[in-house]
Every structure is written in C-alpha cells, then in structure tokens.
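Dear support,

I submitted the protein below through the web form. The confirmation email said the job was done, but the results page showed an empty box. After a refresh the structure appeared. I'm attaching both so you can tell me whether what I see now is the final result or a partial one.
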Amino acid sequence: MQEIRQAVMAYYDAGAEGHKQLAKDFFDSMDANGDGKVSLDEYLQFLRQQGYTHLKSRNFFDELDRNHDGTLDFEEVLSLYYIIQTERPFCDGCDVFLKVLFFTCAECYDEGSSRSFNLCSECYSKRKFTNHQHNTIVDNYLLLAHKRGKPTVVQLNGSPSLDHPINYFQFENRMRPNGLPRADQMRNIPNDHGCVRNNTWEHVTFTDSHLDGHDRLNCARYLALNQSQ
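What the results page shows now:
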C-alpha cells in the first residue's frame, strides 16, 4: 500500500486545482461529522451508500490506516479515492486487495468484458477459486507483453511435463528463459497438432534417434540435445 500512497501523493501534488478540489470533496462527503478524520463507522456508511461493497471491510480499512490510529486522515482517504477512480482489482478467490503483481484472465480482457477475473498469487497457485470459463491466466506484467503480440500466455492447467510433446505457447515459455531461439525463428513451426515436427531446424539438425515414434520432438530431448551442441 505504501507504493500506492506515494503515487497518489505525487499525482495530487502535480494535479490541477480542480482535481484537488474533487479529492477534498470526496473526503468531506465521507467525514460526516466534519472533525477532519474518518472513523470506521463513517467509512462503512459511506461505502454502503455509494455501493462500493467490495471495499466495505475492516481489514481494508486497516490497510488504509497507515498509522493505525483507528481513523483515516486526508492522505489515507486519498488512497481510497485513487483506488476507486482507477478501479484497482481485488482477488476473485479470496477478496484480498491486489497491490502489485496479480493474475488476470487475458481472454476476459481481450473480449472487453465489463467483469474482469483476477487472482492473487496464492489463489492462482493453489487453485483457491471457483470455476472460470476461460483458461488463459497471466500475471499483469505478462498481459502487457501479450497485448503487444508476444506469445507468452500460460495455461491455467499448469506447466507442461518435460516428458511429453508441448504446444506452441508452452514451448515458447520453456525456451525463451533459457536464451534459446523462439519457435517462430526456427525453420519449422508447430503443426496443427501443436507439436514440432520434422528433423531439420534452422539452428539445430536432428537425427531420427532424437524423435519419438510420432516424428515429434519433446522439450526434454530438445534441451538435452541443445546442451550437447
């Protein structure tokens, strides 16, 4: 939350007077008794009236309350104002506020869905969430790469086994972190079954002994052979 506070104050200090007044009006509308601070009761009542039910919890109030005095001052409420205005996400598995890195459904994002699907790292890794109709889940940094046309998506069912043929995106994810050539830089790209076929690539030449009975190359064989070149 500290990084958000710093960003919020930077925006506020550099903002136009009209924008600063909107932030002050937001604080005043929450400070029902006008004492210059927002109590938990004032906080909950305001969020209930405005329909921000996903923010209406004691735990989130405590996160905003940086000095733990049981009330929110102007700067602390300013963080809430920023979170509301920017529609910062919460985990759809456990409702925790997602501060930095989180996982999101790229397909919902691509479809322009009004309802995004977001997960914290724990809910994603331990599958602590209800069923979702899509399976292309990426972290928010990979989503930016995905939107730039880079094939870096990760399937929800987890990383592929090294003992089986893998599909294009899985292959791409295995190769690139090891500094190996991308699939689209090789002479032969995956066929319609999602597996690399044939025995001659731009960077490495294979013999039949490196291929399985279906004329396919799996990831383990590729890595082992590449290390021996």
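Response: this is the final, complete result; the empty box was a page-load delay. The radius of gyration is 25 Å.
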